[in-house]
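ARCHIVE CARD
SHELF: 3
SLOT: left
DATA:
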Amino acid sequence: TIRQPTAVPTADQIRGEVRRVREKRRKLHRGAAAVGCLLVAAAAAVLLSYLVLPVFQIRGRSMQPTLRPGSIVVAVKGANVRPGDVIAFYVGNQLLIKRCIAGPGQMVEIDEEGTVYVDGQPLDEPYLAAKAQGNCEIEFPYTVPPDSWFVLGDNRADSVDSRNTTVGCVENRQIAGKVMVCVWPPSALGALQ
């Protein structure tokens, strides 16, 4: 068989093809750079969330009315904890979120009406919907051990917390973070009180 000679491209055609190939490479490089930036940003967000600002979803009713089931909160690891702060902590493999009531060496009492006393002074607790003594398995007055926190849920009648021996006082090493902000639902968006 005899082959037909192929037409030789003109200089303008070659320049046009070179421009087309270069533009295609530029688009591929821009796309790869964009994907790379997105991957770096996602990795940074995951690291930030894991190392500094963990995000938690509320599962139970023990922190109502402050936090409702399904709420999503952001905590800060390593933040200084003080009485009144809401913290996330681990008991075994379970993550709980409760409010710090008293710190190391402080004495806690809860009377039959549910009023909490720390070092003999009644607490002002505007975050409660109702007071309740709840299920207490400990004897009052109770002194908080060193490096530990006495924690209670804001829904005192329906919270398993430091009043119960399965939770007890929370040691500093158990704390996953100080809960600072509720980010979901939008109606609850804001800093915690």
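SLOT: right
DATA:
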Amino acid sequence: AVRCAAWLGIVYKANFANFTAANGWLTRAERLIKATGPSTLHAWIWLARAYQNPDLPAARLLTEQALQLARSDGDVDTELVALSQLGRIKVGLGDTDSGLAMIDEAMAAALGGEGSNLDTVVYVCCDMLNACELAVDVERAAQWCDVADDFIESYGSPFLYAECRLLYGGVLVAKGK
């Protein structure tokens, strides 16, 4: 229930820009998790809170906390999402080289099949497109999109760009496609 509530918080923000519903679901997740000890479920709540937080330094702290917990628990999917989100945040804060290096690592691992959930690939690819837009790095976005297109062809994952169609469209335009 906690993971579903956290994902609904992400979906309401990402797909509908409905911050009220997103906040409601995240508040629900936080209430449901109060009786448990630290786990990657906490990391998902921190990631979701950071995802909708316009205060990038605060979002960075939440995401770093989630990344540390995911790594200590050995949860690869949560780690890759946290790594890509932290990379996007770093790019937003002006630490472009470090942020894009994190994005590249997360993309390589996600598209290489290290995670177990296709949603991980979607989240990481969306972060990549957002970070590349912030960094005005169309070439990097185009190269990763080529790799992601191969992934879609192999795994039948047409929803990969559902949340980032506009950014992906920009990459295709820039590539002349």
